[in-house]
Amino acid sequence: MPEREREAWDILFTDARLATMAAAGVPYGAREGIALAVKDGAIAWIGPTDDLLHRNARELLPLEGRWVTPGLIDCHTHLVYGGDRAAEFELRLTGATYEEIARAGGGIAATVAATRAASEDDLLQTARPRLEALLREGVTTVEIKSGYGLTLEAETKMLRVARRLGGDYPVTVRTSFLGAHAVPPEYAEDRAGYLEAVIAMLPVLAESGLADAVDAFCEGIAFTPEETARLFTTARELGLPVKLHADQLSNLGGAALAARFGALSADHLEYTDEDGVAAMAEAGTVAVLLPGAFYVLRETQLPPVEALRRHAVPMALATDCNPGSAPLTSPLLTMNLACTLFRLTPEEALAGFTRNAAAALGMGESHGTLEVGKAADLAIWDIERPGELAYRMGFNPLTFAVQAGKRRELPTIEC
Ligand code: DI6
Ligand code: FE
After folding, report:
1. Residue 100 pairs with which residues in a beta bridge?
2. Which residues' Cβ are closer than 6 Å to ligand 1?
3. Ligand 1 atom closest to the CA of 245, numbered from 1
4. Angle 154-158-159 (CA atoms, 0-180°, nearest 5)?
5. Which ligand is located closest to the Cα atom of residue 217?
6. What span, in angstroms and rounded, lies between the C-alpha atoms of 256 and 278?
7. Quick one: average pLDDT of 264-285?
8. 377-400 residue pLDDT tens
């Protein structure tokens, strides 16, 4: 027995069923009767419980057959924002469309006004319950976008809040700068001027380390492919990875554009065509599907799931948590929506919140599967089979989660 194995582990789980989600030729990469050891924040050992040579661990946790999956990764959220858009929800129910509301100065612009008016502490406080809802369902990594500030000051305020959430909670936070989300009202007559302003923010953000990636909304109501390409050219020059809200409401060739810049992911994709999918496959760009927004906007155009499968483009899923098109803080419900609306299999849905979500954030080497050496980010579920995670609606079978090797207790909120 190698010396390392005799050292005390931090946590030793026994009698677990694992959905490793590592490509293994078995559904879910499943293994039964397994022990999993955690040491220094990483997975140190995985093997049959019967093969354990010692049980020398600070914490010994017999799981009695419970399932362990990688901690869930929500790779596309806008969960820091001011105000809410419940009134817009009611408006849409009387017939107004998302695009009409946006063009009339509501929608994203309304959230921009509320976000600008909010203090950094206000934004932090209002984001907390949304983040806590994600954590209660086993999320151990979350991506958070800016994009409701649209000035350097307000965008950095949002990004600082995202970083503070990562410090306050046992969760890994990845940030994306989404200055190119909408043209703010003060630039209504000068789109080119706003784009220049956003491009000028990039070096400042790169320098400050506040943004892990750069995102944009390429759409009729937002930025053109040419504008997006200008932004991405500078982002790549600065060494910032890119990702794109692409082809959500119309096909502007956003997926192919994202691929051309080696984007980590192209997200939404309802209107993406076969050429776009082929370009993503070639570039290794992950498809992030967002069934919550599809559902809320009552879209009818389905993302090209068959083509994504045929071209072996990894499919991730995310909540898209935002106040307009997806007031959603449930990864489990998102999985159900993806299966029901997009016909993903429950295994694809779980891969979408684990392995493929890690890839969409450029974290595939260290996160997203249960393998020795990877981060000890785990979700432990009281279920009989992993397909149950996508099957139920509004039911949470999480027993507990482990993040960076630590069993997670949510901090209590001080009032
Ligand atoms: N697409 C979306 O789904 C969110 N942003 C985007 O570009 C929606 C943002 C909102 O409606 O506030
Ligand atoms: Fe989004």
Report:
1. none
2. 78, 107-108, 111, 181, 217, 245, 248, 293, 320, 322-326
3. 7
4. 115
5. 1
6. 8
7. 98
8. 999 999 999 999 999 999 999 999
Could you identify the atom of ligand 1 that is nearest to the CA of residue 320?
Answer: 3
Ligand nearest to the CA of 254: 1
Spatial contact of 344 and 305, defined as CB atoms under 8 Å apart: yes
Q: How far is the CA of 200 from the centre of ligand 2 (A)?
A: 23
Centre of ligand 1 from the C-alpha of residue 322, in Å:
7
* CA 318 to centroid of ligand 2, rounded, Å: 9
Q: Kindly give the number of the ligand 1 atom that is closest to the alpha carbon of 323.
A: 12
Q: Atom 2 of ligand 1 has which residue's CA nearest to it?
A: 325
Encode pLDDT of 28-64 as tens digits: 999 999 999 999 999 999 999 999 999 999 999 999 9
- 403 CA to middle of ligand 1, Å? 29
What pLDDT was estimated at residue 286? 98
pLDDT at site 410: 62
In whole angstroms, how large is the CA radius of gyration of the chain? Answer: 21
